[in-house]
Amino acid sequence: GAVVSQHPSWVICKSGTSVKIECRSLDFQATTMFWYRQFPKQSLMLMATSNEGSKATYEQGVEKDKFLINHASLTLSTLTVTSAHPEDSSFYICSARNGGLSEKLFFGSGTQLSVL
Amino acid sequence: AQSVSQHNHHVILSEAASLELGCNYSYGGTVNLFWYVQYPGQHLQLLLKYFSGDPLVKGIKGFEAEFIKSKFSFNLRKPSVQWSDTAEYFCAVNSPNQGGKLIFGQGTELSVKP
């Protein structure tokens, strides 16, 4: 079955540094990828929708200059958390849509970010 | 390792039929449980969640789910489906003791015939 690979799975960084998270569709072309964030005791929150070759569409309240999304190819989207702060500590997960007939959604394994 | 299993990959029902989608997880500790829905062309939306308390959880749009700890299950139910319930449904689990990592089931596609 289709696989979405997300790296790293766990990252600890110092406040003020930047962290890049990669999301790859391994055996299908993903024209659309989604980035979500989940804080403890809450549900997933959509951060942005990433379309290959165009600028990401950010949800209200999500700072586009802080959460840089690049979807340069049909198999790779990256989320960079710039100048991370402790309040950015969260679980980030990507999902990719298989643009074939099934239009099915597949999830990465997620990244737990801890900012010290 | 934790895993989430949704037994039904594709369910086809007629309107007004009752729905039950299975979800089982493998983890012996404390868990938080979620059901998400994705309507065609849209992103994920939360249907309901269980953190603690009453194991019978009511969600939006008439959905409910029951947490049965002894069976490691969190099945989603709706007494009478509508055509507009056609969507893909995802069960998800995380454990507050393991950093909150969210694990999804593979999803169940529901098709409701008018």
Structure notes:
The complex is a heterodimer of chains A (116) and B (114). Chain A has 116 residues and is mainly β. Chain A contains no helices and eleven strands. In chain A, strands 2, 4, 5, 6, 9, 10 and 11 form a seven-stranded mixed sheet that branches. Chain A is globular and about 35 Å long. The mean pLDDT of chain B is 90. In chain B, strands 2, 5, 6, 10, 11 and 12 form a six-stranded mixed sheet that branches. In chain B, strands 3-9-8-7 form a four-stranded antiparallel sheet, with no helix packed on it. In chain B, strand 5 and strand 6 form a beta hairpin. At the A-B interface, strand 4 and strand 9 of A face strand 5, strand 10 and strand 11 of B.
Helix-strand blueprint:
The complex is a heterodimer of chains A (116) and B (114).
Chain A: E1 4-7, E2 10-13, E3 19-25, E4 30-38, E5 45-51, E6 57-58, E7 67-73, E8 76-81, E9 90-98, E10 105-107, E11 111-115
Parallel strand pairs in A: 2-11
Antiparallel strand pairs in A: 1-3, 3-8, 4-5, 4-9, 5-6, 7-8, 9-10, 9-11
Chain B: E1 3-5, E2 10-14, E3 19-21, E4 24-26, E5 32-38, E6 45-50, E7 56-58, E8 64-68, E9 73-78, E10 87-94, E11 102-104, E12 108-113
Parallel strand pairs in B: 2-12
Antiparallel strand pairs in B: 1-4, 3-9, 5-6, 5-10, 7-8, 8-9, 10-11, 10-12
**What's the overall average pLDDT of chain A, rounded?**
88
Helix amount of chain A, in percent? under 10%
What is the straight-line distance between the termini of chain A? 37 Å
- Order of H and E elements of chain A: EEEEEEEEEEE
Task: Tell me what portion of residues of chain A adopts beta-strand conformation.
Answer: over 45%
Task: Give me the count of strands of chain B.
Answer: 12
Span between N and C termini of chain B?
Answer: 41 Å
Count of discrete alpha- or pi-helical segments spanning 4 or more residues of chain A: 0
